[in-house]
């Protein structure tokens, strides 16, 4: 959400009176009827899996409620608590209400909290344990502040559109990597009794036209429709949601966009069908802020709660029950799901004072519930460090070897001029599409994913500290595009960024001003190291091969310990172990039709259409299919040591598994047989260099009739010089299957599968085949 959501029309009121009668232009939603299959009624939550006792308590509670009280649980009220959304209390039953707040990289809109590494940095870390620990410590902060539910993590957008404005909030363009990391994040957060609102469900792949707008003639332009076929949604966009629900995710936030031309928050195929039937989801569905566009139809389509408030539900829900438009059991199911979530996470004992640490307005910000702690520090720092990806290191320019003079350039090296609740709350939300964040270092992107961290340790701060400690000298020029360079500099560090914010898609994958700073420094400095704080893909074609650019680091969005983390890497106190969670193209045009968002055009000028015609072929799947050489491949990243691969072993658990999973009672996450391990793969990785290092061993599978290869395993291991480690990959039935649209089931094809293990998607020294 952003605070400006209110400009969106809340009702599906179409006003086309000013449109000239042009035959071609579609002016009525009825044109699209039937695009999205009708799936009714909403399956009731059953208490499946480990939800039984929560459902029992929830049903007992709901049984005591009056109609008015029931209705009051289906939407937020204007928040007196400073929470992003608030479900009001029912005092006579001792229910204190529910506080929900932004967002996935740290608690927004309050003080005394940490600014964590963003989703894209966690994606670049490829580190399961770290994702879990980050979730745990972030969860402790939410809990202490009395926030029952974090509005995150993000797995949609997945990153289909290279210029997508919110891609940095999620982990990776790959559903497998994203799925594993979101699962660990959910487990960590929920271990602290905090609910997770997994977002945005589903197909929320661009910011352009995410909400309805009014054109200059007063006509409504509806939200963009993501038109996604059944196979693609299963194999790509639904995949990480499925993993998170399997891991226990308790809430789903439906998205702003339309899906096959029906708004995502009233799409019965998505909510009743995919989510509540196929994935057996037991929690509740909440709208993104202001994403309700229907009345009773939304409730019948599977929506449970509206935020921040509803203008169409309220007493209409009981009227609708009385006149037969809606069943009483639907209303009961809506609030049973809310209360079951509350009991499932033990919130009845933990969250007695919802929103206790949230200021009621930014100007009265100080309730001093301090949620930061010393014990979080190592995790904050490690998450920042492991999100750095070293992609160029000529002649071992890094780590630095006791430089005497360090020259620092670029607008991204220094800390922000202002850091208060208001400025960080609005961080970027006033920016336009063409703005780059050129007024200081970028540690997080803009919009609801930004927060106000306890401090920001900017790169220059950490460099100065180091100079104090080791007697080196520092020169700097943050403002010149063509700075003068002291010829005795041992190293020139150039800091640039690539800004992105919720609400807008990016304008370009690079900008000429930043490129000029790099090339101007490099022409006068033979040892130029470039650090890019990138909120998404940043192309570097104009200087990647420059002989004087000896090092390039994609630093991503490290959070408040950004400078400290970078220094660990520059000086070799930490060996870089991040790997790209997306593909960097040589040229933006290589992303083809997936470079830019869809725009309203032609006969669909009032109903913008985004056809996901490429199917599963996004990012590296597309580059592999089209034979395009990337600048830096998906999964790529350098270390200060080297690793050798050997000894690939592929072993089947069953000689001849069935083509479809055996039928089984649906649990949260779907048919549990999908997650049976069918194949185990192991390999040996040896550290052949001189220092300790973590390698991310990656396994890709070539599934018959599918992409050349798809990530289906990774194992991050710390190995001492000269030593070896065994890496293990467990392939489940779903990992090896394709979605069969006729059978409506995951199909394990008969045929030959290729197995690849190695360093990244284009460097796979070990290969084998597997036949079913
Ligand atoms: C969208 O339409 C396609 C057919 O074009 C269909 O396969 C798919 O199930 C639909 N999905 C939703 C959510 O409506
Ligand atoms: C429902 O919510 C409204 C608005 O906050 C409140 O005035 C009313 O008392 C609530 N009803 C009940 C029965 O609690
Ligand atoms: C009931 O629904 C109508 C039509 O959507 C809306 O105008 C009205 O405000 C709603 N009533 C309440 C109490 O929300
Ligand atoms: C029933 O009530 C709902 C909510 O007020 C309203 O939207 C709907 O039009 C009504 N339907 C009938 C058939 O009266
Ligand atoms: C940068 O700072 C200048 C001067 O304070 C201001 O005019 C400009 O809008 C800022 N730019 C961004 C992108 O925040
Ligand atoms: C690299 O830097 C050296 C030293 O400043 C300079 O003489 C040389 O021209 C630079 N090379 C390029 C390609 O700019
Ligand atoms: C990138 O591709 C575009 C379009 O094909 C082309 O105009 C441009 O020159 C290319 N840029 C580089 C650096 O090759």
Automatic annotation (TrEMBL):
A cellular-component GO term for this protein: extracellular region
One GO-annotated biological process of the protein: cellulose catabolic process
MF annotations from Gene Ontology: beta-glucosidase activity
Entry annotated with the keyword DNA damage: no
InterPro entries membership: Cellulose_deg_GH3 (IPR050288), Fn3-like (IPR026891), GH (IPR017853), Glyco_hydro_3_C (IPR002772), Glyco_hydro_3_C_sf (IPR036881), Glyco_hydro_3_N (IPR001764), Glyco_hydro_3_N_sf (IPR036962), Ig-like_fold (IPR013783)
Keywords: Carbohydrate metabolism, Cellulose degradation, Glycoprotein, Glycosidase, Hydrolase, Polysaccharide degradation, Secreted, Signal
Residue stretches of biased makeup (Polar residues): 205-223
Family per record: Belongs to the glycosyl hydrolase 3 family.
Name under which the protein is recorded: Probable beta-glucosidase M
Source lineage: Eukaryota, Fungi, Dikarya, Ascomycota, Pezizomycotina
């Amino acid at each position: 959400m952003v605070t400006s959501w209110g400009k969106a029309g809340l009702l599906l009121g179409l006003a086309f009176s000013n449109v000239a009668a042009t035959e071609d232009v579609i002016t009525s939603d009825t044109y699209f009827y039937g695009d999205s299959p009708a799936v009714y009624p909403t399956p009731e939550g059953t208490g499946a899996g480990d939800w039984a006792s929560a459902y029992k308590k929830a049903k007992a509670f709901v049984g005591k409620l009056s109609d008015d009280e029931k209705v009051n649980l289906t939407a937020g009220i204007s928040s007196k608590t400073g929470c992003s959304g608030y479900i009001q209390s029912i005092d006579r039953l001792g229910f204190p209400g529910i506080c929900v707040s932004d967002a996935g990289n740290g608690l927004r809109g309050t003080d005394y909290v940490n600014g964590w590494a963003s989703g894209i940095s966690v994606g670049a870390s490829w580190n399961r344990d770290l994702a879990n620990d980050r979730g745990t410590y972030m969860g402790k902060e939410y809990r202490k502040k009395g926030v029952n539910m974090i509005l995150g993590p993000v797995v949609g957008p997945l990153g289909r559109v290279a210029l997508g404005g919110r891609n940095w909030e999620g982990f990776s363009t790959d559903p497998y990597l994203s799925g594993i990391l979101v699962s660990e994040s959910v487990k960590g957060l929920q271990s602290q009794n905090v609910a997770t609102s997994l977002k945005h469900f589903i197909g929320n792949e661009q910011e352009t036209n995410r909400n309805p707008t009014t054109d200059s003639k007063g006509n409504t332009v509806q939200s963009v429709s993501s038109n996604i076929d059944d196979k693609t949604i299963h194999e790509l966009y639904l995949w990480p949601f499925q993993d998170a629900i399997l891991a226990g995710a308790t809430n789903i936030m439906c998205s702003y966009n339309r899906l096959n031309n029906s708004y995502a928050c009233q799409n019965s195929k998505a909510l009743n069908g995919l989510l509540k039937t196929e994935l057996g989801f037991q929690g509740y569905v909440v709208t993104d802020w202001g994403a309700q566009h229907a009345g009773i139809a939304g409730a019948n389509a599977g929506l449970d709660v509206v935020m921040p408030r509803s203008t169409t539900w309220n007493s209409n829900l009981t009227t609708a029950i009385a006149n037969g438009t809606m069943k009483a059991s639907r209303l009961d199911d809506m609030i049973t799901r809310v209360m079951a979530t509350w009991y499932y996470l033990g919130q009845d004992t933990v969250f007695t004072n919802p929103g206790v640490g949230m200021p009621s307005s930014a100007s009265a910000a100080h309730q001093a519930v301090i949620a930061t702690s010393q014990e979080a520090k190592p995790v904050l720092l490690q998450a920042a460090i492991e999100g750095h990806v070293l992609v160029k290191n000529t002649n071992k320019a890094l780590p630095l070897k006791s430089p005497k003079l360090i020259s620092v350039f670029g607008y991204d090296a220094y800390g922000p001029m202002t850091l208060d609740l208001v400025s960080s709350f609005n961080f970027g939300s006033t920016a336009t599409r063409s703005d780059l964040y050129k007024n200081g270092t970028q540690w997080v992107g803009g919009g609801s994913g930004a927060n106000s961290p306890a401090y920001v340790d900017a790169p220059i701060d950490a460099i100065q500290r180091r100079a104090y400690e080791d007697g080196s000298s520092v020169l700097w020029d943050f403002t010149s595009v063509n700075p003068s360079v002291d010829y005795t500099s041992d190293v020139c560090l150039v800091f640039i960024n690539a800004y992105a914010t919720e609400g807008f898609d990016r304008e370009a994958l690079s900008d000429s001003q930043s490129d000029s700073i790099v090339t101007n420094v490099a022409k006068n400095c033979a040892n130029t190291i470039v650090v890019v704080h990138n909120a998404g893909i940043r192309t570097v074609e104009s200087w990647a091969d420059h002989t004087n650019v000896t090092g390039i680091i994609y630093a991503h969005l490290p959070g408040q310990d950004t400078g400290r983390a970078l220094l660990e890497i520059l000086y070799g106190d930490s060996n870089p172990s991040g790997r790209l969670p997306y593909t960097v193209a040589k040229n933006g045009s290589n992303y083809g039709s997936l470079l830019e968002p869809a725009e309203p055009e032609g006969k669909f000028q009032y109903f913008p259409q985004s056809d996901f015609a490429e199917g599963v072929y996004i990012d590296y799947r597309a580059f592999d299919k089209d034979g395009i050489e990337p600048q830096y491949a998906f999964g790529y990243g350098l270390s200060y040591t080297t690793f050798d691969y050997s000894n690939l072993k592929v072993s089947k658990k069953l000689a001849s598994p069935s083509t479809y999973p055996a039928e089984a009672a649906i649990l949260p996450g779907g048919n549990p047989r999908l997650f049976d391990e069918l194949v185990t793969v192991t390999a040996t990785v040896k550290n052949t260099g001189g220092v300790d290092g973590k390698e991310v061993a990656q396994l890709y599978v070539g599934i018959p009739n599918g992409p050349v290869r798809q990530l289906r395993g990774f194992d991050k291991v710390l190995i001492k010089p000269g030593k070896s480690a065994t890496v293990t990959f467990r392939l489940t039935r779903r990992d090896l299957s394709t979605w069969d649209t006729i059978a409506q089931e995951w199909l394990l094809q008969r045929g030959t599968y290729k197995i690849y293990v190695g360093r990244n998607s284009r460097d796979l020294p070990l290969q084998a085949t597997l036949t079913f």
